[in-house]
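Before the break, one more example. Copy the sequence into your notebook; we will annotate it together after we see the structure.
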Amino acid sequence: MGLLKDYKRPNDKIHALVNEGILNTLKRGVYILGSNISDEPTPEPFLVANHLLGPSYVSLDTALSYHGLIPERVFEITSVTLKAARSFKTPMGLFSYTRLSTPYYAFGIRSVQLAEQQYAMVASAEKALCDKIASTPGTIIRSVRAAADYLLENLRIDEDRLKDFDIAEMKSWIDDAPKKDSLFMVIKMIESL
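Here is what the structure looks like once it is written out:
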């Protein structure tokens, strides 16, 4: 809207730009340059995820894949938000959001440079794993053995990668985390490696 401040009816101009293919609508009020404009770089999907619903940060399977922890390719950008869970189907793909509450929400978030002048908020590897456990219905880990099965067999995370986790940081989140007992068992399992 700032670029169209000289127009009496900026929404009409935006509608015309969308019809001409100069802009693509991601959701009402959020646009990217259309494929007709090839000189400008396309925004990174993680950056788009941060802007479609805010506040939010990229996490869960997408962040686990980004950090190289899970072998699966992820076809949906998954994020965590303070708002209600939602999903958006856009020309850039599918974006889904899971709700987690404060203060736990605020832990383990990093600003990551994705491209020149493009930064996004992304969960650390540790936080992405904790978010995955905390937000997945039916995931209850009651023993170190169950934690090992979940991490090594179900998610197929490499043991060596888990050894690099910052356990002290994970422990600092436990008091405010959902599914405290499950996360505690995961921490104990990683410490035993």
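Helices lie at 10-19, 45-52, 60-66, 125-135, 144-154, 159-163, 167-173, 180-191. Residues 69 and 188 are 19 Å apart (CA to CA). Try to locate both features in your own notes.
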